[in-house]
Amino acid sequence: MGTLIRTGVLKNYFKVAQHLGLEPQPLLRKLRLSSEMLADPDHWIPGSGAVTLLEESARITQCPTFGLRMADLWQLSDLGVVSVLLTHQRTLRDAVGTLIQFRHLMNELLVIRIEEVGKKVIVREDVVADDVGPSIQSVELALGTLSRMCSTLLGTSWYPLSVNFTHDAPSDLRLHRRIFGGKLEFASSFNGLVCRAADLEIPNPIADPVMARHAQRLLEGLPGANEPSVVLEVRKAIYLMLPIGRATIEQVAQGLGINVRTLQRQLESAGEVFSDMVNGVRRDLVIHYMDNGSLSLGRIAESLGYSAYGSFFRWFTAQFGMTPTRWRDTKPADRGRRGN
Questions:
Q1: Which of 142, 207, 242, 260 could make an SS bond with 247 (beta carbons 3.0 to 4.6 A apart)?
Q2: What is the pTM for the complete model shown?
Q3: Do 265 and 329 fall within a single domain?
Q4: Residue 79's Cα: distance from chain center in Å?
């Protein structure tokens, strides 16, 4: 069935499309979607179709902030019952943890990881879709809604140290500055927010543990679109852990709460090999990074988990039949013919 997304995530699509003068019906038909599907917040659609819808809409309207405009209209109540649970969490850390726990009820493409770095915390967030490369619009929609959730829960106390994007900056940053507030870092090695660890521990003055328990029990009884897929969860983990050099089977198994042998057996049953999955994610990411002219080849190597450029050089040449430098000097059509 592939990864799915609940159409409630796309609630503000038609508002933004109308504002930008886009007639979405031809595009919806092309993607085998419909207005009726998107109008029902509890309908599930293929994640790749949702990602493509946002990217094509941004291209047609020539609006590089299409996804972020959707996030600008987002409200916590758009999450339905999940919003009740989030509202009554003790701290922002608990709220983010809750979002991670129940993200499968909203968006199977979404992957979030909290990383402690001294007195700072990195909340890494990405969108991982089947057969679709990194999506600027989907990432900005996800980061925009995450930031708005944080500001809704903390109010003026929320001020991230930085908001990071792997893609290049658009020419106009006014909307980004208004939504995110903190320092903007584009052409970064990851997508996510950096904040003070202390900010995640600020007490939520309206938290009600009774309401939180009630909402959690209700959510735990709701079905997701699919049964959890170990292949999908491993792929998501690899996406997040490659840039920090932790995309090993030991680290991924630990993150999933199982031992290495169990993970290997589950992948084998699904016809997958961990090393092949790492290589596949590297191929997906490197094409995205190489098309980003702001990233040096050394920075790209680091973002793919290579501590030595020579190792990256050899891997890239073996994968694509040409050196990284030649790739950047070659027309896209010729690259496709040379790749493995």
A1: 242
A2: 0.79
A3: yes
A4: 17
